[in-house]
Amino acid sequence: MPSDEKNATSGQSGAAETATSQAQPELKMKTFTAAQPATAGASSVADGKGKPKENVLLGTVGAVLGSLVGVAAIILLDRLGFVAAISGVVMAAGTILLYEKFAKGLSGKGIAICIVVMILMTLLAENIAVSISVVQEAAEDYGVTLTFGEVFGNLYELIAEDVIDGGVYAGSLALVYLFNALGAFGIIKSSFDKRKK
User: Fold this and answer.
1) What is the DSSP track for 60-81?
2) Where are the domains of the chain?
3) What are the phi and psi torsion angles at 182 (to 5°)?
4) What is the mean pLDDT of residues 43-47?
5) Averaged over 3-31, what is the pLDDT?
6) Which residue of 66, 81, 146, 147 shows the fewest CB atoms closer than 10 Å?
């Protein structure tokens, strides 16, 4: 009789262990399944505010493409004999707006990148404009035929050798930067204000 009770007890214990071991995988599976939606939801939000993360690389590409409009404006106005603030507005608007469009956002880093792009592209535009003027003046005033590539590729050598007046070049470049700064100030300030909101 004690032997039967012992067997019954051990049988019940074995059945309980079997039931527990069978329930454990199901319990773990339910726990894992319940945790999945929360993890997926967290990964779908890039910055915790529902806004996509700023793509600096694509934004830089957009800034360069947008600045080309400003380059065209500077060269065109120079050919017409003007240096106007509108060139700065065009340069800043194209650079900043296309950066924001490509990057899907605009941060302080984005503004800094846009400023660097504007400085470099303004220098490029001025060098192109000066090279075109030198080619034209050489042909009209001296009967000398120069190609654009020859002048543009050796521009700083020509300045160093006083073929091009360095003071006039520096003054013209400074004036372009001044008007660019005046034209771009409002757009950059507006972008910072927008970023703070």
Assistant:
1) HHHHHHHHHHHHHHHHHHHHTT
2) 1-44, 56-196
3) -65, -40
4) 43
5) 48
6) 81
Please, what is the average pLDDT of the chain?
77
Contact 59, 103 (CB under 8 A): yes
Q: What's 161's DSSP letter?
A: T
DSSP conformational letter for 52: P
Burial track 149-158 (b if 16+ CB lie within 10 A, e otherwise): eebbebbeeb
Mean pLDDT of 99-108: 89
Nearest to 87 by CA among 60, 125, 53, 117: 125
pTM for the structure as a whole: 0.69
Closest by CA to 88, choosing from 65, 118, 110, 120, is 118
Q: Which of 67-71, 105-109, 144-148 has the highest mean pLDDT?
A: 67-71
Residue 89, burial from CB neighbour count under 10 angstroms (0-12, 13-18, 19+) = buried
